[in-house]
Design goal:
By secondary structure, the chain is an all-alpha fold. The chain contains 9 helices and no strands.
């Protein structure tokens, strides 16, 4: 199980570190509200992520309870989804996060911690891509012989914790090392490295599925 968790954590880091709406919200909050309120933003994002993961797991559990034979099929779809993410990451243009954040309207400056926290939750709950990710990825890391819900909760918590840590890094960069988020060259490499890991994971998982089908 430890080997599986290590792979999941690496994949989670790859997904979370890829610049997107959540990262932009964290950077904006740091610039507008200061670093002291940023943990409320990342905490809201993490909670929204966990809730969405549980929603995805609930649907996945219902499907697998009714049709256990679909487990391998869903795993294969997940592997193909990773390959698609890899190609998309390589083709994705880099963004200047600092410029985007600074151009946003600052009318919400002075927002309360509760409103910042809620903003993070709502952003994640309205992200359809995230629920597709959880639905397609969790089967890759769940042992059919173990507790489905126990493993699902553990994976969800690990992903949420990874989000908090990575976003803390982005917040620190926005506050103390703005040059790291200014310009497109550095974040272009983030996209390409992420694309490489997505492709590698997708091919690895697809290969495992094929070997299991042939040998089984």
């Amino acid at each position: 199980m430890s080997h599986t968790l290590t792979l999941f954590i690496i994949l989670s880091i790859t997904v979370v570190a890829s610049p997107g709406p959540g990262v932009l919200l964290t950077v904006m909050t740091t610039l507008e509200e200061g670093g002291r309120k940023t943990p409320w933003c990342s905490g809201g994002l993490a909670c929204g992520t966990f809730i969405l993961a549980m929603i995805a797991v609930g649907g996945l559990g219902a499907i697998l309870s009714a049709r256990p034979s679909l487990f391998t099929f869903i795993q294969a779809l997940g592997a193909l989804y990773l390959l698609w993410l890899g190609v998309k990451s390589f083709r994705k243009p880099a963004v200047d996060l600092m410029s985007l954040a600074e151009k946003r309207d600052k009318k919400e400056t002075g927002a309360s911690p509760a409103s910042i926290f809620t903003r993070g939750i709502l952003l994640q709950l309205t992200n359809p891509v995230l629920i597709i990710f959880f639905f397609s990825m969790f089967p890759q890391f769940i042992d059919q012989d173990g507790s489905f819900w126990g493993q699902s909760v553990l994976l969800s918590l690990l992903y949420a914790l990874t989000l908090v840590v990575i976003h803390a890094g982005y917040a620190a960069a926005a506050a103390y090392a703005r040059h790291l988020l200014t310009g497109k060259r550095g974040l272009l490499w983030v996209n390409r490295i992420g694309g490489f890991f997505f492709l590698a994971f997708g091919l690895f998982m697809l290969g495992k599925i094929i070997v299991r089908i042939i040998s089984g």
